[in-house]
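As the next step, I selected for study one protein, both as residues and as discrete backbone shape codes, as given directly below:
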Amino acid sequence: MKKRAGIILIHEGKLALMERHKQGRHYFVFPGGGVDEGESDEEAATREAEEELGIKVEVLQKAATILREGKRDQVYFLVRWANGEFGTGTGEEFGEADDFNGTYNPVWMALDEVLAQNVAPKGLAELTVKSYSEGWGQEALIWEE
């Protein structure tokens, strides 16, 4: 089972997320996707940002690793927006929506709304809001779900 690599992008007090409507559920996830064979976690995260958001990002630091028993582990990087136009992603997830895969829509969410919305993973949403106000530690946090 391949690992998932994602990004935490905060710009002007807003968090970049992917809004999902899938199988009757409405929720938001951090941009990211599977790590391909021969690709580093960091390379996968930046590639996914470009595919999903249409922008190039620069990794600032590894922020979190989530170990998920029976499911694929996830790693997230704090990034900054380097260039490109937000919302112009052309990844395969933007093909025709179907009932199984649902829809993907890149959005900005004000940080003060994140904890009140259905943002997954919840622990990462909480870490992001807390770290934005208190500062990011030098070491990536690791936890199990």
Remarks:
- Strands lie at 4-11, 14-22, 25-29, 32-34, 55-67, 74-84, 103-110, 119-120, 141-144.
